[in-house]
Amino acid sequence: MTSNPQIRSFYHESTFTWTHVAWDPQTGSAVIIDPVLDYDPASGRTSMESSNILLDFVAAENLSVGWILETHAHADHLTSAARLKGRLNASVAIGAGIRSVQAHFSKVFNLPADFPTDGTQFDRLVDDEDRIALGNLELRVLHTPGHTDDSMTYVIGDCAFIGDTLFAPDYGTARCDFPGGDARRLYQSIQGIYALGDQAKLFLCHDYPAEGSAARPMTTVAEHKAGNVHIREGISEDEFVSMRDARDARLDMPALILPSIQVNIRAGQLPPAESNGLVYLKIPIDVL
Question: 283 lies in a domain?
């Protein structure tokens, strides 16, 4: 009996995001990792076009999705977790560090005093070395902070779903200038991922391919140790921190950070409708 899942990855081109469906081939028990809600910033319209592709795949493969897993509260796309939860009767999990993310951004967006900052919008907050059953397989949770405090890696057999911690080797590593970010913690988290072994398959949350190249959903530890432009073998912690701090100081904010965070700290729910029945997202001025 294999200890590894079957995996199908779906690329959301406009946000450069990979969503992964992983399942136990013996039982069909499945998880969805980092799903995307389509959002048009010009019109403010949302749609389930991309997520409907996931739903069609799950139905065609006769999979039973028990969990929707977020690797962190994303700043570059809106999650469709809440809508998928309703369609699939699944539960939504994220790292326990979401509480500090919620506390920070509730102030940025001046959310109501009764907005929960204890993570209760999610069905489960996971911690380092937690386990989630996946049919006959077991999913292991690793806390991999540095990009954000709620960043988690989900390991099933020799497959690891690493969120934004690492990109493809030619693109490097995640930024560390968000609330709770820390370049030194990111370096240490990546060493933990490298310790999974050279043959471990690392499934990316994002890929930004060079023109003419196809996006890659997966790399290996060996590829990163040999050629990651930021953190290959021989790069010391101090060298990495110096590089990352200097690089982050020059980066612009992600294009969708303001709408994304407001939705993603709510586990994919939109803010409550106002007195006219419409839903609004806030745009704080001169804050970020």
Answer: no
